[in-house]
Write a structure and sequence with these properties.
With 253 residues, the protein is α/β, with parallel strands linked by helices. The protein is built from ten helices and five strands; from the N terminus they run ββαβαβαβααααααα. It has one domain. 51% of the residues lie in helices and 8% in strands. The longest helix is centred in the middle third of the chain and has 20 residues.
């Protein structure tokens, strides 16, 4: 797992903007008890991570599913459970829900460079309904924040691999990317720590038995086989993956 800078970042559990450097958790209201359960679950994941890298982080838990994110053409597909992105420029959020844009850009203009956050994680309502799904997905997206904050060059190299995959049509699954494998290892490890191995194994088995699509089945079969007790060197694995991808693309069709 990626080493993290030693800095106290006690999570602030409220639906407001946090002070600079502290995670801001926004739980879009459901009923009172469900909203509290989601706040508590998010807090457990943040505490499990402990110290986080510097950066203005927004963690948004929706009360509905974002249709654009689940769209098979313009989004990430029906199997999508959550999204995260570093906000380097206003266009980073094109297509995102208006409510999130208004939090990050209070002037309500994507031309405004005075944003209030540098990174955002998003979970659909349907993801939050299941405790294991919420814990694993939030931990997964939060690990991308850690990767981006502690190994930015490695994070960007993986995003370049992802873009090359889409451009070239190369046939590897996104979960094979080193940053995605790392995020899945961390998510599974933290979910086991918080909810227990039996609950996590049962959730994974349900997704394998009843996947959203074939890609979802491959993803959960991949997660099932991950050994979270073994270390994973993201930097080394990224270099190896880049070499393998370069070799693969150089082969004649």
């Amino acid at each position: 797992m990626i080493s993290q800078p030693k800095r106290s970042t006690k999570p602030k559990m409220e639906s407001q903007l946090s002070a600079r450097g502290l995670p801001s958790v926004v739980v879009k209201p459901k009923n009172t008890s469900e909203s509290k359960r989601r706040q508590d679950a998010a807090g457990q994941v943040l505490l499990a991570f402990g110290d986080l890298p510097r950066g203005r982080l927004l963690c948004f838990f929706d009360s509905e599913d974002c249709g654009a994110f689940k769209d098979e053409i313009i989004g990430f597909g029906k199997a999508n459970r959550g999204v995260s992105v570093p906000i380097s420029k206003p266009s980073s959020l094109r297509g995102w829900p208006d409510e999130i844009i208004s939090i990050i850009y209070p002037s309500w203009s994507l031309d405004d460079k005075n944003r209030t956050f540098d990174f955002v994680t998003y979970l659909h309502d349907s993801t939050c309904e299941d405790p294991v799904a919420m814990t694993m997905t939030f931990a997964h997206e939060l690990q991308h924040f850690v990767q981006c904050g502690t190994m930015r060059a490695v994070f960007e190299a993986n995003e370049a691999f992802r873009a090359l995959r889409l451009k070239s049509g190369d046939g590897f699954d996104s979960h094979e990317l080193p940053i995605e494998k790392d995020a899945r290892i961390v998510a599974k490890r933290i979910a086991i720590r918080i909810l227990g191995r039996e609950a996590v194994d049962q959730y994974i088995a349900r997704n394998i038995a009843n996947p959203v699509n074939d890609g979802d089945r491959r993803n959960w079969s991949f997660i099932s086989g991950l050994d979270v007790s073994k270390p994973y060197d993201l930097e080394v694995e990224t270099k190896l993956f880049g070499q393998e991808l370069e070799s693969r693309l150089a082969r004649p069709l």
